[in-house]
Design brief:
Strand order of the largest sheet: 1-2-3-4
Number of strands: 4
Shape: globular
Helix content: 10-25%
Distance between the termini: 28 Å
Order of helices and strands: EHHEEEH
Structural class: alpha+beta
Radius of gyration: 14 Å
């Protein structure tokens, strides 16, 4: 897919039927999010969107807008860390079954992290188990 600044691409996927299991690349692991991770997540989003395809404002505005949004749920914020505990990927979802942001650090792209994150989100939201469907 080609990135175009200012363009929003909507994708939909049915969660009916069997879903592929996430295949995490060697050397990374999925971790949970806590508000203490917010500065690091913001920095990753800033790096990840630096060449277009999205963006985030300054940390204070970003965190206030995110954490006070009615669709925010910290259990729907998924982090991927490498063996040295560096944040290399993240997916932040709304409770309406919407993937708000998904980013992989540029040095970790093309290894399957983004796809594994998507499959994890799909599995987490299948049958409405984790996300509220609108």
């Amino acid at each position: 897919m080609t990135s175009m600044a200012g363009t929003v691409i909507r994708m939909r996927r049915s969660l009916d039927g069997p879903l592929p299991a996430p295949a995490w690349p060697e050397g990374v692991r999925l971790t949970s999010f806590s508000p203490m991770d917010a500065p690091e997540a913001h920095a990753l989003f800033t790096i990840g969107y630096a060449n277009g395809g999205g963006g985030v404002g300054g940390f204070d505005d970003w965190w206030t807008n995110l954490s006070t949004d009615g669709e925010y749920d910290p259990t729907l914020f998924f982090l991927v860390r490498d063996s040295e505990d560096r944040l290399v990927g993240a997916a932040q979802c709304w409770t309406s079954a919407f993937v708000k942001d998904l980013v992989v650090h540029p040095l970790w792209r093309r290894r399957g992290i983004g796809l594994a994150l998507l499959f994890h989100v799909f599995a987490s939201s299948a049958n409405g188990e984790r996300l509220r469907w609108s």
